Amino acid sequence: MRAGEDARAALCVLCGLPAAGKSTLARALSLRLRRERRWAVGVVAYDDVMPEAFPEEEAAGPLAPSWKALRRELLGCLEGFLRALLHRAPLSAPSGGTGALWGAFTASLQAQGLLRPAPAPEGQAHLLPTPAAAAGPLLLILDDNFYYRSMRLEVYRLARRYSLGFCQLFLDCPLETCLQRNGRRPGALPADTIHLMQGKMEEPNPQKNAWELNSLTVRSATCSPEASPELTGLLLAALENPVTYVEDNVEQKEADRAVCSSSTLHQADQALRRIVSQTMKEAKDACPRPPDLKLLAAALNQLRAGLLRDLRLGGRAGPCSPAPGVPDAVARFQDEKDSLVRKYLSEQH
């Protein structure tokens, strides 16, 4: 499944607080895309596939060990389906998994018409991707809270491994609305759990993370897929622009960016320290009062710290050589340093 071929596929991550409307949106979106665009659509609802993880694991704290293991296993099931789809081969359960989760996962895909039983030569039934799923385009919607960015990054890596499209849809629903909806559910989560999850929610940040560029935030208590050209555009962009390992090696880019940022800050810090040292040496030669020297030194170091902080938060680190931002920081320091010297070392000194 590559761009330009008949068979295209994408993974869409739905994220947001419990009761934000993710499942309602996923079901409505699936029906609309199947009816209007003839897409093969599958919704993988984490609450349905691994219900034993809720609410006990959530109440005990996010990312409890057994819950993390279930999430990894579910990603393994999803990868197995994608592999079978690519190779037009029978689907097989991942090794070391739980039969209950695998059964729930395959039953969900069968109910949505993405898997069909096929008799094997020895008489045992196997599961095969349906022709509709194999012909595409195929959209798999992953419905979960996904409040940690690392959770969504795992899905991105899976999409990249098989050159699939990837996108994120974040439902930004008010906390009070989520609490009210949750309270009306039969198996309601503890309110403290939702409060805790809100505090840990990491929204998509396309400005900071290149792999999150194909993201859409819906800042509303309700979302209507029938009248959302932005949402349709998000999905089409994901299908038409599959991510690849060579073009989107996100781990290496993140590591390179961190190294370059550290190098830039180090160079700027060293340059500013040299200027502070030289300025203080010249100030001592002017024989000012010791209290004035202390005030000047404190002001210069405060200025240095502020410029370094601006450089760090500005996200200006790019290629390691030359380090952008360092000349600007030095120039700003030189300009403001002169006014500080005049302030603390008056003409009478």
From TrEMBL:
A Pfam family: KTI12
Signal peptide (UniProt feature, chain positions): none
Domain of life of the source: Eukaryota
InterPro entries: KTI12/PSTK (IPR013641), L-seryl-tRNA_Sec_kinase_euk (IPR020028), P-loop_NTPase (IPR027417), Ser-tRNA(Sec)_kinase (IPR052648)
Record keywords, A-Z: ATP-binding, Nucleotide-binding
Protein name as catalogued: Phosphoseryl-tRNA kinase
Organism: Pipistrellus nathusii
